[in-house]
Write a structure and sequence with these properties.
278 residues, 2 domains, binds zinc ion
Length: 278
């Protein structure tokens, strides 16, 4: 449905017709994936450093592919591809593809992005749970058995991992990221103001602020569904599912309302600060 998938489908049809181009493309995919894995292993859990590295690495991989593939692509095919890329405006990869791409580059980027997270992403919750094991009373952090309700230490560890994963996804969706940041900023101030009231009304005011934020997040996610459709939400949903088992009611209830709305992990953390104090 999204424009990127249309570009990828067009690329596939051209690649299917040229064994030489297919060979060059497959080689670029193989070498690119190896480079991404190496960068990921080196960066460990430092996601920001990895994202910075990968932007430069993707550009290099595309340049390298373009240098070898260009002579296999006809003028007509290249023009059709450029028109399709122009329609991608606002997409996270639009600048990269325009500056460094030739036909085949969209599929190449998609396959590189698929490598990500196999190492660092899994390690992050594990590291957090290991730290929680010292104070865990429910058993999840110590032996991995799922209790009826997760203790506070495990709840905090998994909620933090959920927020990390959300941040990692949002960095790949700049349009949504900007909107989510604005919504969370606003609701953060509203919650602080509600708590400062210190009256019996403050709970109601805070609830209203949270429910307004949930609606705005839902709308923002719908508006940027092109960006969201490109992301792999598997891990995010898994972590949301775990946070739903928290013994802390505020955290649990926001996680239950999360559905597929990015921003909800961070909102659940704001809600918690609101109810429990920082
Ligand atoms: Zn525990």
């Amino acid at each position: 449905m999204s424009a990127l998938k249309d570009v990828a489908a067009y690329e596939e049809s051209v690649l299917a017709g040229s064994a030489r181009l297919r060979g060059i493309h497959a080689d670029a995919v193989r070498r690119g994936r190896a480079a991404v894995s190496a960068a990921e292993a080196e960066a460990g859990t430092d996601h920001d450093a990895l994202d910075d590295r990968l932007d430069a690495l993707y550009a290099d991989v595309l340049d390298d592919y373009a240098a070898r593939a260009s002579q296999e692509i006809s003028e007509e095919q290249e023009q059709a591809w450029l028109r399709a890329i122009a329609d991608l405006q606002g997409h996270a990869w639009s600048r990269l593809l325009t500056a460094h791409g030739v036909l085949g580059a969209a599929r190449l980027l998609m396959s590189l992005d698929g490598v990500r997270g196999t190492g660092a992403r899994k390690a992050e919750p594990d590291r957090r749970l290991a730290a929680a094991a010292r104070t865990c009373v429910c058993g999840y952090a110590t032996d991995g058995t799922m209790p009826r309700w997760l203790c506070q230490a495990c709840s905090h560890a998994l909620s933090a991992a959920w927020v990390d994963e959300e941040g990692r996804l949002l960095r790949r969706a700049p349009g949504l990221q900007a909107e989510v940041a604005g919504i969370l900023d606003a609701v953060g101030s509203e919650i602080s103001a509600a708590r400062a009231l210190g009256t019996e009304d403050s709970y109601t005011v805070e609830e209203a602020a949270l429910s307004g934020a949930r609606r705005r997040l839902a709308r923002a996610n719908r508006r940027h569904r092109d960006e969201v459709s490109r992301l792999d939400l598997t891990r995010w949903r898994e972590l949301a599912g775990l946070v739903r088992r928290s013994s802390m009611p505020t955290m649990r209830s926001e996680a239950r309302r999360a559905r597929r709305r990015l921003g909800m992990a961070e909102l659940s953390r704001l809600a918690l600060r609101g109810s429990g104090g920082r």
